[in-house]
Automatic annotation (TrEMBL):
The lineage of its organism: Bacteria, Bacillati, Cyanobacteriota, Cyanophyceae, Oscillatoriophycideae. This is DUF29 domain-containing protein. InterPro entries: DUF29 (IPR002636). PANTHER family: SLR0416 PROTEIN, SLR1203 PROTEIN-RELATED.
């Protein structure tokens, strides 16, 4: 909110270059927020993919959570006005990589009633395979 007040002040003073700097800062803050939200849904997606893989089963609840996470990631990644995306595939993959270890930590509490710690789970899952599966689900056209 402080940035908007600063922008207003700069515009009233006619300071266009200062105003543009604040606008760029606001754009970057918005982009970071979107990326953080994508990462959060990535954690949920990866958590359930890990559970599926290790337990070699699925539940309706996991399937719904996976589908909802995919829809949220797709929606968040779309730029409404330009019809583009915030994260191209390479950046989206990197964001999912960042989410992977958090998903492993959470999965350690849930997979097989918490019998594995995150290090043990890491041995049971191929991260590259899991991340590629997540990418394929998010962007089936590739």
């Amino acid at each position: 909110m402080e940035e908007i007040l600063t922008l207003k002040e700069l515009l009233l003073k006619g300071d266009i270059s200062g105003s543009l700097a604040v606008v760029e800062e606001l754009e970057e803050m918005g982009r970071k927020d979107i990326i953080n939200n994508i990462r959060s849904y990535g954690v949920i997606l990866l958590l359930h993919l890990i559970k599926r893989k290790v337990e070699n089963r699925t539940t309706r609840s996991w399937d719904v959570s996976i589908r909802n996470s995919i829809l949220e990631i797709r929606g968040l990644n779309k730029r409404p006005k330009s019809k583009g995306i915030y994260l191209p595939d390479e950046d989206l993959y990197a964001t999912l990589e960042e989410a992977y270890f958090q998903a492993l930590n959470k999965a350690s509490l849930e997979v097989s009633e918490g019998i594995y710690d995150s290090k043990q789970l890491e041995q049971l899952v191929n991260p590259e395979e899991l991340l590629n599966q997540a990418m394929e689900l998010i962007n089936p056209e590739g």
